[in-house]
């Protein structure tokens, strides 16, 4: 019996990455960093989970001899850039720059009507989650979810399964009772490490990733229903029994 659906956020619930990219570049310009990430660069950087981690990786790549100076000056700069970036992203989302991907809201509504719970498992910040879901669902968005795991509650980023294990524990459910939804290889690795069957909906930034081990890879959630998910889970169980 399927008891909960667990969703990643960026790239899975919504095509947010182009807006995140614009927000990063806005922060770089405002702070005079002389950085400007192209779509190609950002696509590669998305293989690193976490905005701060991506910036630090980039900084080290363009300035290999960088060191923490005067009590953490580099970290302070990264934190300041991330604050500016997050504020710009939130403003863009509130202005309608991002909407949920096809089929997401319909699947959520169907799940709730059938008594199947919803949860969030992401490495993004609480502010980013709230901005997106408040705009897409409403000010009461948090009441729709049994659990929300994010960068503040699960600091070890994907592909580590920490955020999924946290969410499963908070819901009091086993992985066999749930299906995860992801868009990236790191997300899939995290979910699989938590023993979750995972549906992948790639986007323009992740369609080249390796999704071996996914329950299904589909373009979006338009044709995905609770009954379809249960069929896929049953078929996977039969396949494992025959293997």
Structural commentary:
The chain has 243 residues and is α/β, with parallel strands linked by helices. 46% of the residues lie in helices and 9% in strands. The protein has 9 helices and 6 strands. The chain has helices at residues 17-30, 39-45, 51-62, 73-94, 104-113, 126-136, 162-171, 185-193, 226-242; strands at 4-7, 117-121, 147-149, 178-182, 197-200, 216-217. It has a 6-stranded parallel beta sheet with strand order 3-2-1-4-5-6, sandwiched between helices. Helix 8 links the parallel strand 4 and strand 5. It is globular. The two termini are 22 Å apart.
Explain the layout of strands and helices.
Elements: E1 4-7, H1 17-30, H2 39-45, H3 51-62, H4 73-94, H5 104-113, E2 117-121, H6 126-136, E3 147-149, H7 162-171, E4 178-182, H8 185-193, E5 197-200, E6 216-217, H9 226-242
Parallel strand pairs: 1-2, 1-4, 2-3, 4-5, 5-6
Helix pairs in contact: 1-4, 3-4, 4-6
């Amino acid at each position: 019996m399927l008891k909960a659906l667990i969703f990643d956020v960026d790239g899975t619930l919504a095509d947010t990455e182009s807006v995140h990219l614009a927000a990063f570049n806005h922060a770089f310009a405002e702070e005079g960093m002389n950085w400007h990430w192209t779509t190609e660069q950002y696509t590669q950087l998305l293989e690193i989970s976490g905005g701060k981690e991506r910036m630090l990786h980039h900084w080290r790549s363009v300035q290999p001899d960088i060191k923490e100076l005067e009590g953490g000056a580099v970290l302070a700069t990264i934190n300041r850039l991330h604050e500016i970036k997050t504020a710009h992203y939130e403003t863009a989302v509130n202005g309608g720059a991002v909407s949920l991907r096809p089929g997401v809201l319909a699947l959520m509504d169907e799940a709730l009507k059938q008594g199947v719970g919803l949860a969030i498992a992401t490495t993004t910040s609480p502010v980013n989650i709230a901005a997106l879901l408040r705009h897409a669902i409403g000010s009461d968005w948090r009441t729709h979810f049994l659990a929300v795991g994010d960068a503040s509650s699960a600091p070890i980023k994907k592909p580590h399964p920490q955020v999924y294990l946290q969410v499963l524990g908070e819901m009091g459910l086993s992985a066999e009772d749930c299906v995860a939804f992801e868009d990236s290889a790191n997300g899939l690795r995290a979910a699989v490490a938590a023993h979750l069957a995972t549906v992948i909906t790639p986007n323009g930034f992740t369609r080249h990733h390796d999704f071996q081990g996914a329950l299904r890879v589909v373009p979006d959630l338009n044709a995905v229903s609770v009954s379809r998910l249960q069929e896929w889970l049953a078929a996977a169980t039969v396949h494992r029994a025959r293997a």
